[in-house]
């Protein structure tokens, strides 16, 4: 049993065992053997009945080490980049950031912090162990650091902290927030946190449940953890078809009325949790069988999209590599091998020779984009959304 990190009151209860899954789900290898031998980690999901927080209780921080060869960046997607641009405008306007100091923890390759500084006239520090760009001061007003953000007094002072798609990777999310709150002291400080929404991720077969994601938060659990760490909730919402959730928080803001968490959110997550194990195993078996049937029928089934969600699907449903190909639009992945299952990634134009009649995708958000690309290649295939 382990105590809930979010509310600090409940005891986490195990509800799902995904077995061993790839640790480095966003990495690809030049050598098939090395890809096959890449590390795996145990995924054992547990939930707090009190607040709906979900965590991999088998997570081992010693195996999950981030470095500059990895990139979990979402800015490659034009839709995500467009949302980021809007977010910069909104934050700059709402918090009057001119001359203020921003701290971006998990800054990726710096796209968001750079843009936020430029739009708002703020300066800032960005930290990320995966940051591979040039370090130090940047013309935008940002200073980039390649490495984990320090804790305690070594952390630069800030008026606004932002952390996008990193909070769910941290092994000690409560201590992280409590440390930021302590650094704020008596100053008026704001925070913006963005994570995948647990209600969405846990309603599927588990293609989104990847090893780097230690925690799964909905609005209720996110509110519980920020409030326990001494912050006030200003606002929360979802975007991208409900896939992503943000929460805006403050400290020492006297004008703030705060926003109450809705128990319906927790109950929706707990309902997804209670059906998860059965759904997960059914979907795994169903897709394995479906692929076998498509192969037997001569459909040459392929998968489009070799991101972490695709890797998880292959691990769970195509471990023996029955698919005719895995393709991706990212040229850096072509000819390289995915972790553990060692599927090779090919450019989409191999489909003109393979002529598949079934193409599996794992992200419904890209369905129309991929359908158009198949059309342009002259491939007439059924798109199957896993
Ligand atoms: Zn809890």
Automatic annotation (TrEMBL):
GO molecular function (one): methyltransferase activity
Keyword Oxidoreductase found: no
Domain of life: Bacteria
Domain C-methyltransferase: 268-375
Keyword vocabulary terms for this entry: Methyltransferase, Transferase
GO BP term (any one): methylation
Pfam family, one: Methyltransf_14
Record carries keyword Secreted: no
Protein name per its UniProtKB record: SAM-dependent methyltransferase
Organism of this sequence: Catenuloplanes nepalensis
């Amino acid at each position: 049993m382990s105590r809930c990190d979010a509310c600090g009151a409940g005891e986490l209860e195990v509800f799902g065992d995904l077995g061993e899954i790839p640790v480095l789900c966003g990495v690809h290898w030049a050598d098939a053997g090395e890809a096959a031998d890449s590390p795996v980690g145990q995924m054992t999901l547990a939930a707090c009945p009190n607040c709906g927080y979900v965590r991999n209780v088998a997570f081992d921080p010693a195996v999950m080490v981030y470095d500059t060869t990895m990139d979990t960046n979402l800015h490659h997607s034009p839709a995500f980049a467009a949302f980021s641009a809007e977010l910069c405008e909104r934050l700059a306007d709402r918090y009057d950031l001119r001359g203020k100091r921003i701290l971006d923890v998990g800054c990726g390759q710096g796209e968001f912090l750079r843009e936020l500084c430029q739009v708002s006239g703020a300066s800032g520090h960005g930290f990320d162990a995966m940051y591979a760009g040039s370090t130090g001061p940047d013309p935008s007003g940002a200073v980039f650091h390649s490495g984990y953000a320090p804790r305690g007094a070594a952390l630069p002072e800030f008026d606004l902290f932002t952390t996008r798609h990193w909070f769910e990777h941290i092994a000690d999310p409560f201590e992280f927030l409590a440390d930021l709150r302590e650094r704020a002291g008596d100053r008026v400080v704001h925070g913006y946190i963005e994570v995948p929404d647990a209600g969405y991720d846990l309603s599927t077969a588990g293609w989104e449940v990847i090893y780097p994601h230690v925690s799964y938060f909905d609005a209720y659990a996110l509110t519980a953890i920020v409030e326990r760490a001494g912050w006030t909730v200003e606002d929360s919402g979802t975007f991208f078809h409900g896939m992503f959730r943000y929460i805006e928080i403050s400290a020492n803001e006297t004008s703030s009325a705060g926003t109450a968490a809705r128990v319906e959110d927790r109950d929706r997550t707990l309902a997804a949790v209670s059906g998860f194990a059965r759904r997960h195993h059914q979907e795994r078996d169903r897709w394995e069988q479906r692929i076998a049937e498509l192969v037997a029928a001569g459909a040459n089934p392929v998968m489009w999209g070799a991101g972490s969600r695709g890797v998880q699907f292959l691990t769970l449903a195509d471990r023996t590599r029955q698919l005719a190909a895995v393709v991706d639009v990212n040229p850096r992945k072509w000819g390289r091998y995915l972790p553990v299952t060692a599927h090779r990634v090919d450019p989409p134009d191999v489909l003109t020779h393979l002529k598949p009649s079934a193409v599996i995708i794992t992200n419904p958000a890209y369905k129309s984009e991929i359908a158009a690309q198949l059309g342009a290649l002259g491939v007439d295939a059924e798109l199957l959304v896993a």
